[in-house]
Amino acid sequence: MSLNDKHITILGIETSCDETAAAVVIDGRDVRSSVVASQTDLHQKYGGVVPEIASRAHIENIYPVISEALGRAHVGPDEIDAIAIANQPGLTIALVVGVTAAKTLSFAWGKPLIAINHLHAHLQSALLGEEQLELPAVALVVSGGHTSLYDCQSPLELTRLGATTDDAAGEAFDKVATILRLPYPGGPSIEKAARSGNPKAIRFPRSMLGRESLDFSFSGLKTAVLYHCRGQDMKGADRVAEMSAQEIADIAASFQAAVIDVLVKKTKRAADRIGARTVLLGGGVAANSPLRDALQRACEKNRPPLRLLVAPKQYCTDNAVMVASLAFHKYRAGLFADLALEPSATG
Questions:
Q1: C-alpha 68, offset from chain centre
Q2: Of 133, 72, 83, nearest to 113 (Cα)?
Q3: What is the pLDDT of residues 247-260, one digit of tens each?
Q4: Distance (Å, rounded) from C-alpha 214 to C-alpha 216?
Q5: CA-CA distance, 31 to 23, in Å (whole number)?
Q6: Are residues 146 and 293 located together in one domain of the fold?
């Protein structure tokens, strides 16, 4: 039996931020199990992820999560062909837990180790159900720590076209939610509040960073929301406590509209530049329904129309299915790591 005929079963592991995840996926598409231990409750009172708390939770959860993933998939070590680990980018103190576990299992089980870029894996989530990818594609990953655009020539050929220069979109959602005294995580809270708001109530700035730029900046938008609530240069009182529910909704909707406007326009700019036929969307913020709808409309209006592939909502936030799925392509290409593999905060 040739390598191309053999079914490939991969155990994926993900600990790049505040989710401890493991999954078993066959041939990059057949999801046999997906287990995610969320840390949202641990970080909620801080309004963001605390690295030390995240690392301790990963240490406590990593082997129970892996064991549960194997159990749900009804597979043992002998049936695993490779172990995939997201080793970059992310919180180093969190990544090291997953990398150490993956290297330990690789050595103990005698299985190949595959290193995965967390951002590339988010884009693979959009391809889980696709038999044929029309290329070239422009790929947008929008998460708590990253907002990036890629020229995608294949799952393994991704060239970054632009990235965030300060606050990522997801980070801006979290910070604005804190300003408006909405629950963490900010993305779902802002989206929920915005449903009853007027997206044109406040004209918040859209930072495009020049006509040709494909980079992102949301720090100024976050500051504009802060000044709107607390006065220019923070010289006024915090008015949020006295605001009506409708005022909060209008601010949330106007902020969300500004973020989406920039994301869609930059993606369209990138698609024009590379002559894209397809747009891929992944990452935690990709779960935002107004963003998905706005990007779909932009793709349909394009001439010729662009095909939009979006990660299923259950695979937008950090998970190990996307890690194992991308690892299948690296396995077929013979791209393995050794036990000297180290985590990296950047990538």
A1: 23
A2: 83
A3: 999 999 999 999 99
A4: 7
A5: 8
A6: yes
